[in-house]
Design brief:
Number of helices of chain B: 9
CATH topology of chain B: Rossmann fold
Shape of chain A: globular
Helix content of chain A: 40-55%
Radius of gyration of chain B: 16 Å
CATH class of chain B: Alpha Beta
Order of helices and strands of chain A: HEHEHEEHEHHEEEHEHEHHEHEH
Strand order of the largest sheet of chain A: 1-2-3-5-8-9-10-12
Strand content of chain A: 15-25%
Number of domains of chain A: 1
Strand order of the largest sheet of chain B: 3-2-1-4-5-6-7-8
Structural class of chain A: alpha/beta
Largest sheet of chain B: 8 strands, mixed
Number of strands of chain B: 8
CATH class of chain A: Alpha Beta
Radius of gyration of chain A: 20 Å
Distance between the termini of chain A: 8 Å
Oligomer: heterodimer
CATH architecture of chain B: 3-Layer(aba) Sandwich
Structural class of chain B: alpha/beta
CATH superfamily of chain B: NAD(P)-binding Rossmann-like Domain
Shape of chain B: globular
Number of strands of chain A: 12
Number of domains of chain B: 1
Number of helices of chain A: 12
């Protein structure tokens, strides 16, 4: 890759506010877990990491249900890092409110806010906010349409079936740039890829299992669909889970129990059989778990960037009940060592 | 590729359907696929993600295929083209997923195999359960040629050996070791909460996990 291309690549950290444990293995409270994420974001900002993305959940094993509130806190104690949601479950939210909250975040952070819209793979928010699962498709379809209109920052007239109509509604605050950065997060549903292209939104791929090359045709689909709709095909980004420590062994030893606990707890509600260690190792070696030493993780990230030609890579960190100190050290290693090393590898002929 | 089956139909155009369509094309089958409604809606997607497959309506897919794989959200199984599927061998790759399907007592409970519910609706078809217990990224990543030491297993449940044999040939052609576990009712061991749901193991381990599984009534 050329220097110019490498310079363009952005690196991010993504979290759902998983509950860490202290040195004695005791779980943090939700407030402590939220403050831990702020601490990690401050460190990430100091290290020059490009973006932090926080996703929403509405269940006890994750502390973040309101990403933009946490991001607002981060905004006031950081300087450069971009502040993203990952994702905002638009289907069970109100597009007008989403715009208001993120344009407020954009003001607090001097233009660093990013909304990543998605349908989410968890759906606890539906009964919580009074939405029907049977409206899953229609809710997202209608709300993304309304949101794309709101982004023009002009009075909106709109009508749908899932929300009261708007007539010449003007929504505030306006952003300074006149453009609230917005992307669509997609987990592999082809319809979602086409939808992102239809609205001309940049695409963030959530690649949480299997080898990333599976997504090469999806990026092609995004570009071909944008061409068909006459919209702009933006650079594509990806996010995948991982963990970094001094050695491969240490990284696996720390990540495995946390990952398994996370997977099995979610799996219980979905009827999965418990995760086996060799499945985990398979994902580490050939799939989408970026777990290991600085060199191992850097090589794997560089390979994914080259294979998919993405311009953004976000590492989802701290999955499961992991020691807060190990998480903080991981952020340090990612910013200080892994990212520069990835750039180095990409520059190699 | 199977000697008797040339044309595989896939009803559904989501994540699982796309992967199965890609594997079937790679194995040399003719592949027909449908989303919900107008095939034009998925034409571009199919041409990019599964070159060689043909997008049609669900009714046309059912009518024109030798074997049809079902991969729509399970909760909507009553929207399947019952008449056109009549007389056909149908592979049920669907699962109850409460987050999508909502509360459906007709499809849940440890004494019910969801494929039996599907069979109960598709009265004129022969339903065999397969492919449902493997995650779609594992389906994509884990295909191996016959005899490969690290080949993974795919379990099959169906009522007649003629039908499970045909499905076993397809499973084999797509890159997995088939493991016939018994009749359609046994399929409950393959669904969410069952012995091997989400399992990503070879056929031998798969068999052990199923044999050792105790259903909690």
């Amino acid at each position: 890759m050329t220097d110019e291309e490498i310079k363009k690549i952005q690196f991010g950290l993504d979290s759902f506010g998983d509950i860490p444990v202290d040195e004695n293995g005791k779980l943090f409270t939700h407030p402590e877990a939220i403050r831990q994420v702020v601490k990690e974001a401050v460190l990430a900002d100091k290290l020059g990491i490009d973006v932090i993305a926080l996703g929403e959940h509405h269940r006890p094993d994750f502390s973040i249900s309101s990403p933009e509130t946490v991001l607002a806190g981060i905004a006031t104690v950081t300087k450069d890092i971009k502040l993203a949601s990952g994702v905002t479950v638009l289907s069970s939210d109100d597009p007008v409110r989403v715009f208001e909250r993120f344009s407020t975040l954009d003001a607090l952070s001097n233009g660093r806010a990013q909304v990543i819209l998605g349908r989410g793979s968890f759906t606890e928010s539906f009964p919580l906010f009074g939405y029907e699962m049977t409206d899953y498709e229609t809710l997202f379809e209608e709300k993304i349409e309304l949101f794309s209109k709101l982004l023009k920052e002009e009075p909106v007239t709109w009508e749908g079936t899932m929300r009261a109509p708007l007539v010449d509604a003007d929504v505030f605050p306006k952003t300074e740039s006149g453009h609230l950065q917005t992307m669509v997060g997609v987990g592999g549903s082809p319809q979602s890829v086409v939808r992102a292209a239809h609205y001309g939104f940049p695409l963030m791929l959530a690649i949480i299992g299997g080898s990333p090359d599976r997504f090469v045709p999806y990026i092609d689909l995004y570009k071909r669909a944008a061409k068909e709709f006459g919209t702009e095909a933006h650079p594509v980004g990806m996010h995948s889970p991982g963990f970094i420590a001094d050695t491969d062994k240490e990284a696996r030893d720390i990540a495995w129990p946390a990952h398994k606990a996370n997977f099995d707890r979610i799996g219980k509600t979905r009827g999965w059989t418990p995760m086996k260690r060799d499945h985990f190792i398979d994902e580490v070696e050939h799939g989408s778990l970026y777990i290991g030493s600085v060199e191992t993780v850097a090589q794997k990230i560089a390979k994914a960037i080259k294979t998919l030609k993405v311009e953004r890579f976000d590492l989802v960190y701290g999955g499961g009940p992991m020691a807060a100190s190990a998480r903080l050290k991981m952020v340090q290693l990612y910013g200080e060592k892994v990212i520069p090393r990835v750039r180095e590898i990409l520059a190699e002929k | 590729m199977s000697n008797t089956i040339k044309k595989i139909g896939i009803i559904g155009a989501g994540k699982v359907s796309i992967v199965l369509a890609q594997l079937a094309i790679k194995a040399g089958y003719n592949v027909l696929i449908s989303g919900s409604g107008d095939p034009q809606k998925i034409a571009l997607t199919i041409s990019v993600l599964v070159p060689g497959a043909k997008a049609l309506t669900s009714a046309e897919v059912a009518k024109r295929s030798d074997v049809i794989i079902l991969a729509i959200p399970l909760g909507r199984y009553k929207e399947l083209p019952k008449e056109e599927l009549s007389g056909k061998l149908v592979i049920d790759a669907m699962n109850y997923w409460w987050e999508i399907d909502g509360d459906r007592p007709d499809l849940t409970g440890s004494d019910i195999s969801s494929s039996e519910a599907v069979q109960g609706f598709l009265t004129g078809s022969r339903v065999v359960k397969a492919f449902n217990h493997v995650g779609y990224h594992d389906l994509h990543n884990e295909t191996r040629p016959e005899g490969a030491p690290d080949r993974k297993g795919v379990a099959i449940a169906g009522d007649t050996s003629d039908d499970t044999k045909i499905v076993a040939e397809i499973v084999n052609a797509l890159g997995f070791d088939p493991l016939v576990i018994g009749n359609l009712a046994e399929g409950r061991k393959l669904q969410p909460g069952g012995a091997v749901f989400g399992a990503h193991v070879n056929a031998e381990t798969l068999k052990q996990m199923i044999d050792n599984f105790v259903i909690i009534e």
